[in-house]
Specification:
Layout (H helix, E strand, L loop, with lengths): L1 H13 L9 H14 L4 H31 L12 E3 L9 E4 L2 E3 L4 H20 L14 E5 L2 E6 L7 E5 L11
Antiparallel strand pairs: 1-2, 2-3, 4-5, 5-6
The structure holds zinc ion.
């Protein structure tokens, strides 16, 4: 597997991503790629990396948009609102950057992308409608994106224990009992 490790490091350098904190999902995807199509070039890898990040961003945006619209009864759209801005420029920074409001993500990791989309939609709802979304029903305060056991979640910072996990950002994901 020495060849794989060399290839992987070279590819990660090409997309400006450090290997040491690479999410397992991305690492697994890279091993599958290597097994299926071998040591492809940096250029080809950048294309695959970017298209994977973009398609995940579209899907994650849809998930967050649907739950935000259902809960706020407001449309997450509008002419002045360009919600996703793609950037590919290996000369100046990470490859395959997806921007939403002031947030950006450039790694094809589902939970990281979902968390970024959630922060972007939250920012849009605040700036466009002046509404705090989402809120904790118990404490009536705004929630913050966080990560819990590798899942992107909405956290509340209130309460006796100094905060609690309210729900997964993806409504289809069930958190374990006792959260
Ligand atoms: Zn709370």
């Amino acid at each position: 597997m020495a060849n794989f490790a060399d290839w992987r490091d070279r590819m990660l350098r090409a997309v400006w991503r450090q290997g040491d904190d690479l999410p397992e999902e991305v690492s697994d995807w890279m091993s599958e790629l290597y097994e299926e199509i071998g040591a492809i070039s940096e250029e080809n890898f950048c294309e695959l990396w970017t298209s994977r990040t973009f398609s995940m961003a579209r899907a994650a945006f849809q998930v967050v948009k649907d739950s935000a619209e259902e809960e706020t009864r407001k449309k997450i759209t509008g002419e002045e609102y360009c919600y996703i801005d793609y950037m590919i420029d290996p000369e100046t920074g990470p490859v395959g950057v997806v921007r939403i409001k002031s947030e950006e993500v450039s790694t094809p990791d589902w939970e990281e992308i979902l968390g970024t989309m959630a922060e972007g939609v939250q920012e849009f709802i605040m700036s466009h409608y002046r509404i705090v979304w989402p809120i904790c029903e118990t404490h009536r305060s705004g929630l913050h994106v966080g990560y819990f056991h590798g899942l992107s979640v909405w956290n509340c910072r209130e309460g006796a224990t100094g905060g609690h996990v309210v729900k997964a950002i993806n409504p289809a994901t069930c958190l374990q009992e006792g959260v």
